[in-house]
Design brief:
alpha/beta, six-stranded mixed sheet, 6 strands, disordered C terminus
């Protein structure tokens, strides 16, 4: 039986878990987009610094939602509302724990964010590297226009 996934806004105390998941996701999926020296070295400390600052002092119009299952972080999505006058809001980060059976929580959290967003514009998602060949938002997750671009 799959544990239920719960969504909530992040708190400052979530920074270490969010940073660790972000770093692990980059190490697993972003080889070639970032140098091996960075991914095998400073990425954990760098992400910890970014997420500690980001969650301690959130900028206006930005928020992060975590997906939790069985008391553990299953994924997160960080959004910048109305980031661009043409493209609208930006899903800046979306990472899911690779080993979780609820891997769909990443897509589900993005869909929940889109449906509950105070933004009135479209949503832009940029997919990096090899992920761009396989990931596409489902029609049911697009209540407004969504743009998906590949960045290799």
């Amino acid at each position: 039986m799959t544990a239920q996934v719960h969504y909530r806004l992040t708190r400052a105390c979530d920074a270490p878990a969010v940073a660790a998941l972000h770093a692990e996701s980059w190490q697993r999926h972003y080889r070639g987009a970032y140098s091996d020296a960075f991914l095998d070295g400073d990425v954990v400390a760098e992400r910890a610094a970014v997420w500690t600052q980001r969650l301690r002092e959130p900028e206006a119009g930005q928020f992060t939602i975590v997906a939790e299952s069985a008391g553990l972080l299953a994924g997160f999505v960080h959004t910048i509302l109305d980031a661009d006058p043409v493209w609208g809001s930006l899903v800046d980060n979306l990472h899911v724990d690779y080993d979780r059976s609820e891997a769909e929580s990443g897509v589900a959290s993005w869909g929940r964010r889109c449906r509950s967003s105070p933004s009135t514009g479209p949503v832009q998602v940029s997919i990096f590297g090899s992920l761009s060949r396989t990931w596409r938002p489902r029609a049911s997750m697009r209540p407004r226009a969504a743009s998906v671009s590949s960045v290799v």
